[in-house]
Amino acid sequence: MAYVAAPLERLIEQFAKLPGIGRKGATRYAYQVLSMSKQDAMEFAQAIQDAHTKVRRCKVCQNFTEDEICAICSNAGRDHSVICVVESPRDVTAFERTRAFRGVYHVLHGLLSPMDGITAEQLCIKELLDRLKDGEIQELIMATNSTVEGEATAMYIAKLVKPLGVKVTRLAYGLPVGSDIQYADEVTLGSSLTNRKEL
């Protein structure tokens, strides 16, 4: 095996920890970092540090933000009576690309998965229920992926919310079963929003 300098090996190992990145891809990224100018490398490192120290969860919707309350939650022009419930911040980005949704969001930061030890207490479900207490919310759109975990999470939340008199709908999937929302094109995602059904 060829000798690799220890700092380079550590960089390769760090890249390899990222999901979907194997040893070969991690090695390519590490060498790319080494080919950067010192200035570019410092900016890259600073961007990672800033993301970790300056980004936090919005105290209302749990999406990532620099501020206490994110730009969507603080926007008076949005329809605050409709909440689109998603698994991750990446899903918010996907929906915002469609420009078809003018409501607000709630990010669960995961899905129920008893097999993996992920329970309701580990998700941001309590924070969602707290948002429903003032009676302003009229509809929850369950926009979790059409996987076993996504469906189970949607049904679990629907059962908790129904007694509160809030309408709970589910995306109409023109998406293939088992696919991820974040990879859907804007037209398909916009259509699934428009044609959502009640749970």
TrEMBL record:
Alphabetized, the UniProt keywords read:
DNA damage, DNA recombination, DNA repair, Metal-binding, Zinc, Zinc-finger
Query: What are the boundaries of the C4-type zinc fingers?
Result: 58-73
Asked if the keyword Signal belongs to this entry, the reply reads no
Q: Which residues form the Toprim domain?
A: 81-176
Matches recorded under Pfam families:
RecR_C, RecR_HhH, RecR_ZnF, Toprim_4
Keyword Glycosyltransferase attached: no
What does this protein do, in the record's words?
May play a role in DNA repair. It seems to be involved in an RecBC-independent recombinational process of DNA repair. It may act with RecF and RecO.
NCBIfam families given for it? recR
This protein's name: Recombination protein RecR
- Species the sequence originates in: Ruthenibacterium intestinale
What lineage, starting at the top, does this entry show?
Answer: Bacteria, Bacillati, Bacillota, Clostridia, Eubacteriales
